[in-house]
Specification:
By secondary structure, chain A is mostly helical. Chain A contains 5 helices and no strands. Classes of the chains: A mainly alpha, B mainly alpha.
Chain lengths: 102, 231
């Protein structure tokens, strides 16, 4: 059976390195402002490709089921905040959309 | 939060809401990696060694698509770069005399939520408080992963497909919260990266990991030009 240990540990390293660096070195104050702003925007820029096009492709042939689910989550998170309710609602909406064949 | 005595037990108490929040997300992660063909101990190893929401989901989808290790490393590194900024703030607030292994362990536990909660305290942060806070969150993440994996063994396929939306729902909720805090530019940046990634992977056949890196860098570069104030 195939083992996944190597990619798991590569991913762990790619997580630990950026986490541990600032506990020993401080260099962030010395970066040029444009670069510093760009680095701070990376997490927001990550949301796009983390959601699209996967949320459509995972549900082929029911192209819109996942999208219906995340729309519900987006709206709830925007108005109510939090994560638990939006996530649970997205599961329900996606399930219903799959049943309806969306 | 007002000034209180920060101990192991106040840390655990503060970590409890994080535990509750992580648990269902980690369950979704366990379910996703089960479907990728990981074994239970590998799923648990994933969460034990990584302890990062978006990073782990990204890594899982790259592993699923058969990405090269270099793609995996760079993509996960980029998405986790935010921890460098968060860690810098937490490190500045730690009590003096926390060194070596303790510092490394605190670094490993610095997630988005641990960062926000710990910095709500006005004073310096003792190692015992950080240990309580981080271990409670960690427990939620690791145990949720294991339970999600096990639930995946018995859940009917249609429901599993629906539960799979959890990853996207998590990112979409986070995006909605950023949008509420920082305005329409957030959606613009996410739309640029989503559009770039879709074009590169679907139309131009670029491998998913590299496409992810390019779209992220492009969108945050454009974002840094249009957003002048600190976000």
């Amino acid at each position: 059976m195939k083992t996944f240990v190597v990619p798991i540990l590569v991913s762990a390293l790619a997580t630990f390195i950026p986490r541990v660096i600032p506990y020993w070195v401080s260099f962030l104050d010395k970066l040029p402002p444009l670069l510093s702003r760009m680095l701070r925007l990376l997490p927001i820029a990550a949301f796009g490709p983390l959601i699209f096009p996967g949320v459509f492709l995972d549900y082929v042939p029911h192209l819109y089921s996942g999208f219906a689910g995340i729309s519900a989550a987006f709206i709830l998170a925007y108005f109510k905040g939090g994560m638990i309710l939006p996530i649970l609602s997205s599961i329900v909406v996606t399930y219903l959309a799959l049943l309806l064949g969306a | 939060m007002s000034e209180r005595n920060l101990t192991l037990s106040t840390g655990c108490k503060d970590g409890f809401p994080i535990f509750i929040g992580y648990f269902p997300t980690a369950m979704a992660f366990g379910l996703v990696v089960k479907n990728l063909g990981l074994r239970l101990w590998e799923a648990v190893l994933f969460s034990v060694t990584n302890f990062a929401g978006s990073g782990q989901f990204l890594a899982a989808s790259l592993i699923g698509s058969g990405a090269f290790l270099a793609e995996l490393f760079i993509s996960v590194l980029l998405i986790n770069l935010r921890y460098t900024f968060m860690g810098a703030e937490v490190a500045r607030r730690l009590e003096d005399g926390i060194t070596g292994m303790k510092r490394a362990l605190i670094a490993h536990g610095t997630t988005d939520e641990v960062f926000s909660i710990s910095l709500m305290n006005p004073g310096r942060l003792p190692a015992s408080y950080m240990a309580g806070l981080e271990l409670t969150s960690y427990a939620g993440w690791v145990s949720g992963t294991a339970l999600g994996f096990l639930v995946g063994l018995v859940l009917p396929p249609a429901l599993q497909l629906a539960v799979g939306v959890t990853i996207y729902a998590m990112f979409s909720s986070l995006l909605a919260q950023e949008f509420r805090k920082k305005g329409i530019k957030v959606l613009l940046i996410a739309a640029i990266s989503a559009g770039t990634h879709s074009v590169l992977t679907l139309l131009l056949g670029v491998k998913i990991g590299w496409s992810f890196v390019v779209s992220m860098l492009l969108a945050s570069f454009i974002g840094s030009l249009i957003i002048r104030e600190d976000v």
